[in-house]
Write a sequence for this structure.
């Protein structure tokens, strides 16, 4: 397995672990903040129990690619920026508007999983993610 493929597999595993942590959380980090583009992206695939993850997320550039080694995925890590998702950091609507090159970036957010979903499996779907 190549170094690039191994690094991608590690990153995906960490993303999955962070995603599971995100789903199991019970608090809201950005309560009361308006959610942009809150509509269902694929109405033909609408489920009864659905919520958007658009809105405010903690955000950090990792220009030295040190996030994995420094375990930025561990709960409690402070990120210095806030980004509005679904907009990319290059756009003004994101709240960052930084058009310089950043190969590695980190997003973090805590969500509230509704109590009514407690007996169900919860699936996270990140669409249009590079």
């Amino acid at each position: 397995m190549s170094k690039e493929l191994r690094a991608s597999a590690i990153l995906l595993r960490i993303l999955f672990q962070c995603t599971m942590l995100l789903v199991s959380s019970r608090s809201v980090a950005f309560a009361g903040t308006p959610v942009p583009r809150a509509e269902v992206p694929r109405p033909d695939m609408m489920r009864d129990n659905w919520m958007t993850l658009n809105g405010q997320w903690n955000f950090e550039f990792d220009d030295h690619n040190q996030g994995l080694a420094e375990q930025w995925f561990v709960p409690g890590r402070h990120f210095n920026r806030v980004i509005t998702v679904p907009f990319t950091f290059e756009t003004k609507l994101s709240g960052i508007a930084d058009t310089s090159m950043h190969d590695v970036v980190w997003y973090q957010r805590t969500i509230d999983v509704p109590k009514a979903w407690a007996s169900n499996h919860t699936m996270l779907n990140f669409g249009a993610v590079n």
